Amino acid sequence: MQDNCATWGSVVQLGKTEFEPAPPAAYRRGSTKLYRWLPGPELSDVLPSGMALDLVCGQTALGERVFWPFDSRDPAKKQRDPFRAFLFAARQCGFAILCKHFPDRFDSHLRRSFGDMWFLFLRGQTMRPFVSRRFNTVSDLVDRRTAGPKSMLPLTWLPATSPEAPKNPAQLMKLGEDFAADHGIRLRRASQRIHHGLAALANRDPLPPRDREASRLLVRSALFDIEADLVLPEDLRLAVEEQILSALDSHICSDKPQQHFDMWFLGHHNSFVKQVAQRLKGLNPKEARSIVKHVLLDLAFRSCEYIAQCIQAVMYDFEKGLDGTLSQGERAAFHALYYPQDAAGGLPLILLRDKLEFAEGILQLLLSDPGSEKAIGAFQYLLMMYGQLARWRRQVDRTRKQPIGRAAAPRQIDEQPEPEIRGSREEERASDHRIIKLIDLLERSGKLRCECADSEWKVIDWKPTKLSSSVKFGCRKCEIVTRRILLTKKMIKEMDA
Predict the structure, then answer these.
(1) Looking at the domain assignment, is residue 398 inside a domain?
(2) Residue at 351 is within a domain
(3) Where among 283, 300, 317 does a domain terminate?
(4) Least confident range of 253-262, 409-418, 465-474
(5) What tens digit of pLDDT does each residue of 271-303 get?
(6) Phi then psi for 21, rounded to 5 degrees?
(7) Helices 360-368 and 328-338 meet at what angle, rounded to 10?
């Protein structure tokens, strides 16, 4: 069957398949079908031959269809990462559609910006702070070295109003089975029981409604393990971004092969950060590298907005190719997955990739009613839970890799490190009235902000150097939000006035 209502391509139904959408828990077995979007002749001159976008369609218990990415080129047919193949194809096809549909707007400068952002997006997936753990097994939830084989990682961020949290993975999976049964879902894997157990905890106390900017912070914390958000002066941030983009453009436009560029920018032992840091004058090398890494992560996260535009462009054409066969509920689920959503900080849910599998217990509730405040609050609670669990898991793994006798017990998820004391002079500085003036100055300028009502800030760490100083602040109220701010000469002058 082929529908020709799409503007830039056509949608072909390839028939039934034995493969299930991911996450598969809420779909009927044997109900999945393959769909393929093929570019039209107007795009043939800008897309490689054989380019196509494959989606697998599954039916929920209510009979509504949901479309998920599918990798038809996977030789083993394991479908371990269908999102990766989808993002590559959707970015290329969507970008080609945008360039054809808006020829005046997409000049050479904007096209180059979209190209740069794609490589920065790929760079973000390879950086150490990027979080990719799936939490599919019991071993992901257990600290076998310091807490015993049957003790689960403590869920210390649960509010005091929550019922007693499960003490071990068995209790968590039992909670997941009960939660799934209440919604008519039959679980077949241990990973699904774990995810639905965490979803049950989130569904008990969903977060209150948050605006797009607050949701962006949650999404960022789920994608990247960043302990403190380094607040840089705007002129310094722009200077570092200019150096990064200049170095990137010079290599993209060179005549060297693609393999050379991949090794230089995306290779495991590349020196890109060091090369850019050497161009920053007036900073010590260690601090310069830290600033470059932070700006790189910020650009990698901002690149998601560019990828989101490409995804929306090609999926809008895919939706038109279905010739109006989507019901109102199916269309709402389709838009939630592939169109920008305030609940995900202005990004389509599909860009969260494997985090959707972690949130599969709430995802069906969200897709069935994307406007439900409870479903949105529970989904965002799971994003916060994922970020906290990922940070804790990394601390546990670092501890396990240390020699026995030297390993320190990992700190609690919501516990902030104690201020580093360097003697009586450091203690005097912490209690100095200048700190109060500095905090007031930063709050008025908007550099220190937290969602807590009447938030109070404390100094966690102060690192003075010969050339500059950086201060790490923590919110006393929520004990979660931290900010590291690089002090400029103007700030220090106003603080000492």
Answers:
(1) no
(2) no
(3) 300
(4) 409-418
(5) 899 999 999 888 888 889 999 999 999 999 999
(6) -65, 160
(7) 130
Taking alpha carbons only, the member of 166, 238, 242, 167 closest to residue 204 is 166
Largest CA distance in the chain: 78
**pLDDT mean over 237-265:** 89
The answer to whether position 383 is within a domain reads no
| Inter-residue long-range contacts of 45-49, CB under 8 Å, 24+ positions, other chains counted | 46/96, 46/99, 46/100, 47/92, 47/93, 47/96, 48/92
Share of the chain above pLDDT 70, in %: 78
Domain boundary among 300, 320, 346: 300
- Mean pLDDT throughout 92-98? 95
For residue 64, give the nearest of 296, 355, 329 by alpha carbon: 329
- Other Cβ atoms closer than 10 A to 427: 12
Number of domains in the chain: 2
pTM: 0.79
Count CA atoms closer than 13 A to 124's CA, side-chain side.
25
Query: Does residue 291 sit within a domain?
Result: yes
**Residue 404's CB: how many other CB atoms inside 10 A?**
7
Q: From CA 54, how far away is CA 354, in angstroms rounded?
A: 18
Q: Quick: pLDDT tens for 22-62.
A: 555 555 555 678 899 999 999 988 998 889 999 988 887 67
Q: What pLDDT score was predicted for residue 32?
A: 79
Is the pLDDT confidence value at 415 over 70? no
Q: Which domain holds residue 441?
A: 424-496
Average pLDDT of 147-168? 57
pLDDT at 252: 87
HEC profile for the chain?
Answer: CEECCCCCEEEEEEEECCCCCCCCCCECCCCCEEEEEEECHHHCCCCCCCCCEEEEEEEECCCCEEEEECCCCCCCCCCCCHHHHHHHHHHHHHHHHHHHHCCCCCCHHHHHHHHHHHHHHHHHHHCCCECCCCCCCHHHHECCCCCCCCCECCCCCCCCCCCCCCCCHHHHHHHHHHHHHHCCCCCCCHHHHHHHHHHHHHHHCCCCCCCHHHHHHHHHHHHECCCCEEECCHHHHHHHHHHHHHHHHHHHCCCCCHHHHHHHHCCCCCCHHHHHHCCCCCCCHHHHHHHHHHHHHHHHHHHHHHHHHHHHHHHHHHHHHCCCCCCHHHHHHHHHHHCCEHHHCCECHHHHCCHHHHCHHHHHHHHHCCCCHHHHHHHHHHHHHHHHHHHHHHHHHHHHHCCCCCCCCCCCCCCCCCCCCCCHHHHHHHCCHHHHHHHHHHHHHCCCCCCCCCCCEEEEEEEECCCCEEEEEEECCCCCCEEEEEECHHHHHHHHC
